[in-house]
Amino acid sequence: MELDMGQVRAFVTAAEELHFGRAAERLHVSQQALSKRVGKLEDSLSARLFDRSTQKVELTQAGERFLPFAIDALAAADAAVAAIKGTRQTVRVDVLDERLAPMQLVRHATRRLEDLPIEVSMRHGLPNALPALRSGEADAAFGRVHSLAPRELAELAHRLVLLEPLALLVSRDHPLAAADSVGLASLRDVPLWAPIGGAVAEWAAYLEQFADAWDLNVDFSGPSLSLDHLVDDIAARPEVATLVGGRMQLPPTSRAAVVYLTGPTPVYPWSLVWPKGKQHPLLEALLDAFTEGFTWPPDVWLAEADRIGLSA
Fold it and tell me: How far does the signal peptide extend, from start to end residue (predicted)?
């Protein structure tokens, strides 16, 4: 059998997003058209690739087996086209999630560099983006680079682009809801709940390291399902606070408030990473846009691995 690369691209994009609506938006097609392409591919393979319900989209075992080969096939097809055209212009960047700080940096870059051809993917964590960086499916990715194993870090070039302040997310009925900030030393008296079951590994590790460093009693139980789900849970639990990135984009009708942490301010280090020796020709302009106005803020706390890595 011969694979239809349009169907393969539809499958890979849907697998990256695990959401057919967002995948359709990325491909500039209707959700119905995307579903048809995936359905035709499933028919060709005689295998179901996704389990879909009104609540979530998940890869089947067949889909998980097929995904790395599909990514490689797309990379080979794109490389063949690039060889004919002489160069590949589009720079493909993985941002983890559309509501987190890296997506804000991308939006800023596209406003500053109006003619920059950029394509965004969301693989939900730097470790998940590494195969795409190796294969050429992605040119760069955002993440907490010093959370990687040394052998993985050795493959990558990277540059720090943002230190994002950590903040509390609380119900509008929480005692701290009206406060602009709270001192870090006072956090031991605040009941904290931060579900990390299934969360992005580098974020979960950061929260655990932060709690250990400041001797905080944090309840890490429960699944990390989505930002909307977390906001709903916090809005319904005014007795606890959770920890989030301070630049996280809340839902427009949020029933929660953000309270910043000070003295010192804990920060999450976002770096842009790319394979050593394979820097996209447009990446330098993109890095300049990402880091425009970036300064190292005073009085910050970094996890030990990040502090050592960034000072090396």
Answer: none
Q: Could you report how far apart the first and last alpha carbons of the chain are, in Å? A: 52
What does DSSP say about strands 265-275 and 156-171: parallel, antiparallel, or unpaired?
antiparallel
Q: Look at residue 296 and tell me if it is in a domain.
A: no
Examine residue 180 and state whether it is found in any structural domain, yes or no: yes
Domain assignment present for residue 143? The answer is: no
Under 8 Å between Cβ of 138 and 120: no
The candidate with the shortest Cα–Cα distance to 119, out of 161, 91, 78, is 91
Full residue range of the structural domain in which residue 38 is found:
1-86
Domain final residue pick, 60, 86, 112: 86
DSSP designation for 304: H
Instruction: Please count the residues of the chain.
Output: 312
Q: What is the pTM of this model?
A: 0.72
Q: What is the tally of structural domains in the chain?
A: 2
Q: Per residue in 156-180, pLDDT tens?
A: 999 999 999 999 999 999 999 999 8
Alpha-carbon Rg for the chain in angstroms: 21
Quick check: is 289 in a domain? no
Span of 81-90, 129-138, 255-264, 294-303 with lowest mean pLDDT: 81-90
* pLDDT in the model for residue 208: 96
Using the predicted structure, report yes or no on whether residue 85 has a pLDDT greater than 60: no
Query: Distance between CA 118 and CA 57 in Å, rounded?
Result: 26
CB 169, CB 231: distance < 8 Å: yes
Tokens of 33: 């058209």
CATH number at residue 212: 3.40.190.290
